[in-house]
Amino acid sequence: MKKNSTEAIPLILDFCNWLKEQKKSPNTIATYKRELEKYQEWLQEKNYDIHHVTKGDIQSYIIFLEQEQKSLATIDKTIGAIRTFAKFLKKPELVFGIKIKPVEKKEKIETLSSNEYALLLNQVKEDGNLRNIAIVYILLHTGIRVSELCKLNWSNVDFIKNELIVQRNDEERFIPLSKDTRIHLKNYLQSHTSTEALFITKSGDRITERTVQYMLKKYRVNPNKLRHTFCQRLIDSNVDLEIVSRFAGHKDINVTKRYVKPQLSKYKLEEVINNAFINETLG
């Protein structure tokens, strides 16, 4: 094989066959294969060998991606592929202790104000589309990504435990369903009889991300804004940072910390200090 070739080597093909045996979805297999091929190309440029990959090689590649200013989501996807590849090699220790530099987000996080939040729910309910109502409530009350929403099946909803089971890559997370979300989801589910996909189009096909984005555009919002609103509301309600991170599916808790903001003015801080030491007396 010539240098810098991106042709999949037998080892990567064997990995893909192993993923099939592990019952991974075609999308997951394609993603992992693509990320490993990128990693393979980088290794070749450094005269390294994917057959003898080391922890140092992996850390160097992550640093390279950070220097290329790749997004945290892209780096997270890469690490997920390499982590699973390490399991395939029976060397899971290769990814132990791999460090990721937090990505500083310069842009302001956009969330719905209380009035915008109420207006959105009122508008979508007034339009009366049961599917769209359920979608808006799930995005707002669970914070899942639009890609995750589109992949939901009936089996991902547990009305007995009142939770949503979200699957992403090799992991599952369980998010409690609010009372309103359960009500609107049940109303929607009673309106169609799909055997697998939770949200479908009028023609009965699984809903796409573009369809959801187009629907939300009518209400002048986007999926990210609803996801940010979910996280921000939990943080503002003093929910533990690790819990919010787990619900949101953040790999790096520094991403969740973006929603933490100073709650007290300088005057209030001085008042807190004075009250904390109110029983102190001068000597």
What topology does this entry show?
Blueprint: H1 10-21, H2 26-45, H3 55-67, H4 72-88, H5 114-127, H6 130-142, H7 146-150, E1 157-158, E2 163-168, E3 171-176, H8 179-189, H9 209-217, H10 223-236, H11 241-248, H12 253-256, H13 266-276
Antiparallel strand pairs: 1-2, 2-3
Provide key terms for this protein.
283 residues, mainly alpha, 3-stranded antiparallel beta sheet, 3 strands
What does this structure look like?
There is one protein chain. The chain has about 280 residues and is mainly α. Helices cover about 55% and strands about 5% of the residues. The protein contains 13 helices and three strands. The chain has helices spanning about 10-20, 25-45, 55-65, 70-90, 115-125, 130-140, 145-150, 180-190, 210-215, 225-235, 240-250, 255, 265-275; strands at about 155-160, 165-170, 170-175. It has a three-stranded antiparallel sheet, with no helix packed on it. A hairpin with a 4-residue loop joins β1 and β2. α3 packs antiparallel against α4, α6 (about 130-140) packs across α10 and α10 (about 225-235) packs antiparallel against α11 (about 240-250). The longest helix has 20 residues, at about 25-45. The protein is globular and about 60 Å long. It starts with 9 loop residues before the first helix and ends in a 7-residue tail after the last helix. Mean pLDDT is about 85; it is low at about 1-5.
